[in-house]
Amino acid sequence: MEGFEEEITEPVSPTGQYLNSSCLCIYILGVLEFEISIDDCQTHSLLQDVFLPINTRFSSIMIKDQFNGEKKWKKVEVNLEDHINVPEFSSEKSCNSFYDESLDEYMSKISMEHLPQDRPLWEIHIIKYPTKNAAATVVFKLHHALGDGYSLMGALLSCLERADNPSLPFTLPSSQRPKSVFNTKAIIKRFPSTFSSTLRSMMDFGWSIVKSSMIEDDLTPIRSRADDVKLRKITISSVSFTMEHIKEVKSRLDVK
């Protein structure tokens, strides 16, 4: 980061302030797996011309107003070298020329590290080693104060291009749903399930109020009350779902 601009772009939302405080600090790791090896010669231009313009927060730092103490986003000049990491893995931990274990350990390591507050709250890690799932991997680490998971994933996906036609926006496959037609019998048939769903929602809401005010949650590995819980190592695990499984879940939940 070479210099600061005097203009303060926007105030930080209450949620953003809480997510970047002494009480809580949450990061989002976005993983992109590639079928071919990565040529990082265009990394700087892609970040400068495509990634940074998506959101002004990607080139802003969080500062505290010296008069009222409110936190605000202040736009700065970004030194991309501070945000790009290309790690080197030891060949001793490779298994049949794959580096899955090394990648998992590396992601566990960076997930525990705090980003410096004097530069924009994101960084990119370019993993040039093959795994069982990919020839190369790119990991985006973004502070949750920059936005919610939906908006940040949308920002990352907007940096991608379609292989068949780069001029078209990147989209995910979607199933065509038949147009709904007003049908009295269908409405009557759906009424019991709708009533049951509403009743369950009311019961869940009431139970959440009781749990938050009268009953404590059970002790779990996440809620252990251990003094060193913040210092414990994080283990990264993943579960893969096929597009057909996702469509099946959407169909059963009747999600558009």
What does this structure look like?
By secondary structure, the chain is of the alpha+beta class. It has helices spanning 14-19, 43-51, 100-112, 149-157, 184-213, 243-253, and strands at residues 4-11, 27-34, 60-64, 71-76, 84-85, 122-127, 136-143. The chain has a domain at 4-157: Chloramphenicol acetyltransferase-like domain (Chloramphenicol Acetyltransferase). Helix content is 30%, strand content 17%. The strands form 2 sheets. The protein has a 4-stranded mixed β-sheet with strand order 2-7-6-5, sandwiched between helices. The radius of gyration is 23 Å and the shape is globular. It contains 6 helices and 7 strands, in the order βαβαβββαββααα. β6 (122-127) and β7 (136-143) form a beta hairpin.
Identify the notable features of this structure and list them briefly.
three-stranded antiparallel sheet, O-acyltransferase_WSD1_N, O-acyltransferase_WSD1-like, four-stranded mixed sheet, 256 residues, Chloramphenicol Acetyltransferase, alpha+beta, globular, acyltransferase, 7 strands, EC 2.3.1.20
Biggest β-sheet: strands ordered side by side in the sheet: 2-7-6-5
**Shape verdict:** globular
CATH H-level homologous superfamily name of one domain: Chloramphenicol acetyltransferase-like domain
How many strands, which pairing sense, and closed or not: the largest β-sheet?
4 strands, mixed
Q: Round the Cα radius of gyration to an integer and report it.
A: 23 Å
Number of strands: 7
Give the DSSP E fraction (strand runs of 2 or more residues).
15-25%
Give, in order, the helices and strands. EHEHEEEHEEHHH
| CATH topology description of one domain | Chloramphenicol Acetyltransferase
Count helical runs: 6
Which class of secondary structure composition applies to the elements? alpha+beta
C-alpha end-to-end distance: 43 Å
Uncertain regions spanning at least 5 consecutive residues: none
- The overall pLDDT average reads 81
Query: What is the CATH class of one domain?
Result: Alpha Beta
